[in-house]
Amino acid sequence: MVTKTERKIATGAWSDRYRDKWKWDKVTWGSHSVDCYPGGCPFRVYVKDGKIMREEQGGQLPVIQPGVPDMNPMGCQKGASWCHIHTSPDRILHPLKRAGERGEGKWEQVSWDQAFTDIADAMLDAIQDQGPESIINLMTPEPGAGPARMFSTALGTPTTDGNSEFQDFSPGFYITWGKFNPVSSMDDWFLAELTLIWHANPVYTNIHWYHSVAESRYNGGEVITVAPDYSPSAIHADYHVPVRIGTDAAFALSMCKVIIDAGLYDKKFVQEQTDLPLLIRKDNLRFLRGSDVSEGDRDDQFFWIDARARVLAPAPRGTLATADVEPALEGSIMVTLKDGSQVEVMPAFERLKEKLQDYEPEAAAKIC
Hints:
Elements: H1 4-10, H2 13-20, E1 26-30, E2 43-48, E3 51-57, H3 77-80, H4 83-86, E4 96-98, E5 107-109, H5 112-130, H6 145-148, H7 151-155, H8 162-166, H9 171-177, E6 194-198, H10 202-205, H11 207-218, E7 222-226, H12 232-235, E8 239-241, H13 248-261, H14 267-273, E9 279-281, H15 290-293, E10 303-306, E11 311-314, E12 333-336, E13 342-347, H16 348-355, H17 361-367
Parallel strand pairs: 6-7, 7-8
Antiparallel strand pairs: 1-2, 2-3, 4-5, 9-13, 10-11, 12-13
């Protein structure tokens, strides 16, 4: 039985205000496609009196592959709290100029004309005194960032690479595979036997897809975090490898040496999905190109050794799927160049093995 006092508590002014927080006029869809990858997390947006009062993950993404969890919930606390920025009392709505010493926290409001004039004058002074390279324009992930920074080209001021600024994409992907993302969508990570978290802290920075990493452990997968600090991503990993800052390359090369020496690599993958079977000239350590071999041939025509016939063979310029060719990963042959001279060539894999001789685990351990 509910007492009179309990009824008053349940219907008091404070409880009414609390219930008002969960009333809305309509629900619509929204997203936050700023600098997340993959972005476009679907959010339900709750609107009241023409203002967004709260947001929550949509959770309506379907299962793509039977037996693999869906990608829900796509979204993080940053997106869920975005609506509060619209009406935040701390939101800056007009230009402010420092009124005291740097770091003192004193500001005064100025007009847009004064703000633009002061900024333009400072840029012109810097260019005149030290040259346009003295002004660095940071690229940002917002869709309008590129057009808004077109003036940098006219002035000759450098603009940073967006990859190095917000680092949702890894330049190494471009260099190695020619694609910004050479893998499947993150729900497929559920099937991973091993996940390496390296140069990343996805528990904090990729909240919307980290659960796919955690779910892989339910499927028997292992997670290893390589990081100098005991980061949030290290806490949830099976193993944490604490390397010294800046020594990741030595650690990776030592890993490569162990894998190659023990024959643990997937030979077919190396032959078809990397540039390691392509031939390198021993005289200048550059890739052998069609223009080196024949007059009028292409600069982007590369070669490998047909391991069966031990002869030079042109590598496909589309995919490296080998078809009837067995690209050699080791050894060397002599090749006649277009000027009649000869040069010894070897697969890039052979060159990699030579470079790895200095990275025995014991030697790398002293570095890392």
